[in-house]
Amino acid sequence: MIQFLLNGQLQVVENLDPNTTVLQYLRNHQQKNGTKEGCASGDCGACTVAIGELAGDRIRYKNVMACIALLPSLHGKHLVTVEGLKDGDQLHPVQQVMVDKHGSQCGYCTPGVVMSLFALKKNHPHAERKEVEAVLAGNLCRCTGYQPIINAALSLQQTPQDDQFSRREAEWVAQLRQIKQQGSVALSDNTQRYFAPTSTTELARLLDRYRGAKLLAGGTDLNLEITQALKSFDTIIYLGSVEGLSVVEETSDSLMIGAAASYSECEALLEANFPALAEVIERIGSAQIRNVGTLGGNIANASPIGDTPPGLIALDARLHLRKGECERVIPLEDFYLGYKVTALQPGEYISRIEIPKPTADQLFKMYKISKRFDDDISAVCAAFNLTIKRGKVEQARIAYGGMAAVPKRALACEDALTGEAWTEATITDAMVALSNDFQPLDDVRASAAYRMQVAQNLLMRCFIETEQAEPLTRVNYYG
């Protein structure tokens, strides 16, 4: 049984297939059809809802794609849909501004836009255009040309912050706390099972009992197997409630990021220490995706074109792998054994990612090449971690994604740079050395020749950007 609030009303769900998405539940079980299905893959934003989670004495709302969120992950949370915004006969301010600024035409995308604006209003009541564009990047509209929607979002600065969600917040906090006191939960339809353990001890017990269980964190990749490949998983174990797995903290020499922490939750810490990595993470997907997707999931997925592993490998990140009470630490570069094959042992999972803090002499650059700038899979991803002193390269760690069956260091390129002067001639030699590191494949995203040319050019780009005050613009970058 799971419990959550839907537009302020308690919902108790039992005997339901845990593979059910939030979108399916809303439309098929609650007849709340304001939430639309567009792509069923987390791309278009038509299904955007807001999910509120306890944050001390407050509820923090975030916009999420309902089509790739599993219903049982709502336990102890507040799900808000477009139907729940209106207060009696009065439209919510985010609905009213869409009317006043003519932000809706056919209306299909409008509920999702409205819910993203709701999250924006709650988290950034005086948002400027940059915040507006960031929160709306995952909401596609084919009617208005976006400007009226942006105008509506900017006009929210003049609307009151007080609404029914602020007036009833204490009441809902009390309800959510009571639900949370249940501890671990489970949901089953007698065929498929879902578990949400709260301790590592219980997690270990479940992993030992259900050897083929699927681990769920953000689910932005795993849940596509349900919505796109039409799979149904017998056993799902949710990591988001396990104590300690969502912790994000800074020690004297490292950043520690729990495997179940979302990109949004670790964004500020990464931005402060590695702006180039944070910039690539911002392009992994929309705000709706970053609000639930996790760094741990991006690593465990073992995709050769995952966006974060090249940067983390270049930064010499280490993985804390746990099985029961036993924990071992390995370099991330040793985690990938082959295409979609990792070093995880049966019953073992990633608990934390440890990233050494930057040093004063460290230069870190990272680049992603994709057909679209936002919300697209990379063809090539490159990361350069260099220590340059007195014009000479003392140390180089370089890693690429999209160039091999796994994210991989460019060892020949590193050797061509280390100990040499940081000059264009050295870079040219290192570009040639890259051909000894990789033999990329042709696929739908890019040809092998294109990938190699881009990989070499990104090394030159790194050099050029260290020799001038301003980084190359996006126009220079993409042609």
State the main characteristics.
18 helices; alpha+beta; 479 residues; disordered C terminus; five-stranded mixed sheet; single chain; Enolase-like, domain 1; Ubiquitin-like (UB roll)
- The CATH class of the domain at 1-182 is identified as Alpha Beta
Helical coverage, percent range: 25-40%
Please provide the count of β strands.
Answer: 20
Instruction: Provide a count of the helices.
Output: 18
CATH architecture of the domain at 1-182: Roll
The CATH superfamily of the domain at 1-182 is known as Beta-grasp domain
Shape: globular
Which secondary-structure class do the elements indicate?
alpha+beta
Whole-number mean pLDDT: 94
CATH topology of the domain at 1-182: Ubiquitin-like (UB roll)
Strand content: 15-25%
Biggest sheet features: 5 strands, mixed
pLDDT below 50 for ≥5 consecutive residues: which ranges?
Answer: 474-479
**How far is it from the N-terminal to the C-terminal residue, by CA?**
54 Å
What is the alpha-carbon Rg in Å? 23 Å
| Largest beta sheet: strand ordering | 2-1-5-3-4
